[in-house]
Amino acid sequence: MEFGLSEDQKLLQESIGRTLEKASPLTRVRQAAETHEPFAADIWQALVELGVAGMLVAEEHGGMGMGLLDTALAAEMLGRHVAPVPFVATAVMAPIAIAGGGSKTQQAVWLPKLASGETIAGVAVSERAAGAREGAGVTASGGKLSGTALFALDGMGADIFIVADKAGGLHLVNGDAKGLTRIALTSIDLTRPLCELRFDEVGAEPLSSGDTGMTLRRMIDAGRVMLAADTLGAGSAMIEKAVAYAGERKQFGRVIGSFQAVKHMCAEMAAELEPCRALVWYAAHAFDTMPGEASLMAAHAKAHTSEVGRFVARTATEVHGGMGFTDLVGLHYWFKRIGLNRQLLGGPERVRHEAAVLQGWAAAD
Amino acid sequence: MDLAYGPQYEAFRAEIRAFIAAHGEKAPRRFGVSRPSEETLAWQRLLIEHGYAARTVPKEYGGYGAEPDILQSRIIAEEFTTAGLPMGIANQGISMLVPTLLELGTEEQKKKWIAPTLRGEVVWCQGYSEPGSGSDLASLQTKAVEDGDDFVINGQKIWTSTAHAADMIFCLVRTEPDKPKHEGISYLIFSMKTPGIEVRPLKTMTGHAEFNEVFFTDVRVPKKDIVAGRGQGWFVANATLKHERGMLGDPNQAGTRLKEIVDLMHKETIDGMRLIDHPVYRDRLVELQGRVLAMQFHGLRLLTAAAKGEDPGIARLIVKLQGCEINHRLAALAIDALGEIGVLYEDSPHLRAGGAWQHRYMFDLGLIIGGGTAQIQKNIISERGLGMPREPKPAKA
């Protein structure tokens, strides 16, 4: 019985953290956000050199053949450094889609390109994971896609897209395919631009090998665990920043961190966030080794970490007082990162409903 | 990450299951807060004999004498919980005094007290808090003045659970009034039958007297009945308090209560609709389930750290605060889901689960306050866990 990280996993996480510390300082994050870069290519390149793009890709396809727990550790670091790079779609959900639903040929073509970072994949499954807004939804007919997909992840810099249709089928689409229009959606979080995809009779390759329903389920579960891990990392960084600020800022002749009102805010944040770490680890480990529990645990990790993330984001900002509200200290990048994570691939209420359905406590919709 | 225990531990688990199959029906139905029944004492002896209670206490002091192995302890707890059986007696003598004596007691004290305490024959109470010394425990004022071979004790203790049924007390008293507050305290152990001790029940908001007040008037205690030396009491008490905080906020208890609520919500109906089918209550249930799971996995993380001899740091410091809070919220959900039935109490008609949820809702609030209030826990988390500065001492008048 060992519930914790291996030495290799600790080293991996540290090396990603060190790389991001150098490559993704706040000044660089700010630049990427303010100029609406699709993603920060230099930071992405530094991560690709560590193998981050191919963590989940099997070794035979040029990847590292790791598990979701490893990618969760990477996601935590990306959240901690509010890194303006693609990850959840291109390094996690797309490899799962292609490994699960792709033919041998599709796997041989695309997985090495994803692993090397040469190709970036966007994923458009919001209608299946978070529910379809009015007018959204993609229909597949005769190998062509039509309709609208909202909130595609890692989409602005993507070379290809994995798209779920209304019936739950999965498709691979070239980013420059004829009839495909990509529209940027500006969210609060400028570190990970979202986009809307409009399909007008767009040619697509089906990803129809194996159990497509299961492949889509696995993509969503994995994506949710990654977003939870991202929030965990961003929340940890916010607590550290709040504690550091409270240790410097003086009012009434003493550092504000010596006031119990402020200390207790920090203690509450830490007490709420620390158990999320074990929940994220467990959910990722369940995804890797306990398929029967994977969806339920992914739902819990996503919902609970989102709730705690909201509390931490708000409280850490309050600890910073007026400075937390300014653009100057940039704390809002973390606040917004957590805010976006909460809604992507299903907000807490929706995801908890799924958890109830999975346990037979509610009827499936 | 490996959640399997491995063949050697699974063999150990099989032994426990065999024990439970053979002896489970001898388990007492209820453990009260007063003296253990004959049935309970027999169960306790059986558990010690098989190593399921007092497992790591050396044989010479009446324990089972196994090497400490936190995974084995966990497996024992898992199997007994799964079978719905009580573990051994969990009173303050066993959980707090025994570890303290093992660590700091004289050979004579260990020989005399540990074995009968483990067997449940000697019941202890804890004399720490005073009316004027709660969170600031080190300000305690109960005096013990040297007189010949004795200390003479005068003062008052409060929140003394089991005092009405206890044979003995482990008690913090001020022996060196001129020293700084932390250095003037001694830890004495003495009989509750000593002349000059008066126990008055302390009725709480639950309607029951789960605690007592204890008054000392010229109580004579031999000077040899001190643990560690004069002025060492604060250090001794801290060695003990860490055992108490480990007991409070146990995530497995929360897991058991969550299951009870799931059952309740499947059975109870309102307007002909099961509570589980009511989306608002169901959402609260699932939200709490997420919290309970997080704390259970957090417990696994702490267990792994303990097995490796690592200090998990802040991860350990949050357990009492979070664990007690979750239990209180679970009780609140059960009450809300039951609505008007949820506020029934005592022996009312239509009462559910013997009124346990209301009792827990109130009693668990007591646990949020007791054993170091939530606010003291937050001080500890922020100061020791996050390295934040202590509150500056007020200037001396």
What's a quick, concise take on this entry?
The complex is a heterodimer of chains A (365) and B (397). Chain A is an alpha+beta fold.
Q: How does this model look, in words?
A:
The complex is a heterodimer of chains A (365) and B (397). With 365 residues, chain A is α+β, with helices and mostly antiparallel strands. Chain A is 56% helix and 14% strand. Among the domains of chain A are: 7-87, Acyl-CoA dehydrogenase/oxidase, N-terminal domain (Butyryl-Coa Dehydrogenase, subunit A, domain 1); 212-358, Butyryl-CoA Dehydrogenase, subunit A, domain 3. Chain A has helices spanning 7-23, 26-34, 41-50, 68-80, 88-101, 104-115, 126-129, 212-248, 260-289, 291-319, 321-325, 332-343, 348-358, and strands spanning 121-124, 137-141, 144-152, 160-164, 170-174, 180-185, 194-203, 205-206, 250-251, 254-255. The longest helix of chain A has 37 residues, at 212-248. Chain A starts with 6 loop residues before the first helix and ends in a 7-residue tail after the last helix. In chain B, helix 4 (92-104) packs antiparallel against helix 5 and helix 8 packs antiparallel against helix 10 (319-338). Chain B folds into three domains: 7-89, no CATH class; 124-231, Beta Barrel (Butyryl-CoA Dehydrogenase, subunit A, domain 2); 249-385, Butyryl-CoA Dehydrogenase, subunit A, domain 3 (Up-down Bundle), CATH 1.20.140.10. In chain B, the strands form three sheets. Chain B has a four-stranded mixed beta sheet. In chain B, strands 2-3-7-6 form a four-stranded antiparallel beta sheet, with no helix packed on it. By secondary structure, chain B is α+β, with helices and mostly antiparallel strands. Classes of the chains: A alpha+beta (365), B alpha+beta (397).
